[in-house]
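Exercise 7. Given the components listed, write out the predicted structure of the assembled complex. Treat all entries as one system.
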Amino acid sequence: MALFLGTAVINDLRLLGVGFRSVPAGEITIRLLRITRFAFVVMVVTGVLLFYSNPLRYYHNIFFRIKLVLLVVSAVNIWLFHGRIHRRVAEWQHDAVPPRQARLAGLVSLLAWSGIVVAGRLVAYDWFDCDRNVQTAFMMWLQGCATSGVAE
Amino acid sequence: MLWFFEWCEATWLGTAVRTSVGAFPLIESIHLLGLGLLGGAILVVDLRMLGVGLTGQRVAAVAREARPWLVLGLGTMVLTGTLLFLSEAVKCYYNTSFWVKMTALVIALCHTFLIRQPVALDPELESSTRSRFVAIGSMALWFTVAAAGRWIGYS
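Answer.
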């Protein structure tokens, strides 16, 4: 987790132009992101294993759902970044502060991954579990909880 | 020494975190974000010392760039970690993982600032066997801190 998040954050900080400014951006997006990808695979494999320990509970957990949505946001952001501004990384990689599009990608990434960490941590808490306390209709709907007496 | 832990738990800060529903999970989350920053700042240098990652830069250059983020991440973790500790100090006292973590943390901090940082900044030691050993030691120590920390929650 530290390997994945740490290298991703360093990448984002460089794209924002606030950290590692003496290192060319291309060096980070290419060499460092290789490590990030490797660590990501480890996280997905272990994450899937944890998910299968109790799939129904996670499926109906609001924080798990938020986490998945943010993962999609993050994926779209990565896809847009690499398909657009990163194609011309050679032109701007020595700038201390990268172009606006790259800074935006760095910011979205940083926020999405932070959200994923927070949501992921909160998955462990049962405040909103379908079978616990009385949940609001909205929360029941958000989590796809089965309503009593009515088939799901 | 137990009286000290009891005192910690009775402080208004410890009580405030303990009695609030959302405070502990929220502080825990920030603790994890700090982990991302600290872990990244540590690993990027250790890996570079082993010849992995930012190989286009000198080890010393990477170490210099990583340092402010290491300090920021560490500061975040210590601050949030203290709050978490205050809220359940007595539980920590009886928790073996807690003591393993704190012991490893002290050693890891000494190793990072007294041994690894000087070695990383010394251009003559770049890609030497000694520098590789220091990097592996650093990763092993910090891994112990993180793993023991995670284990505090399982007992």
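Discussion: Residues 25-52 of chain A form the longest helix (28 residues). The CA atoms of residues 1 and 107 of chain A lie 20 Å apart.
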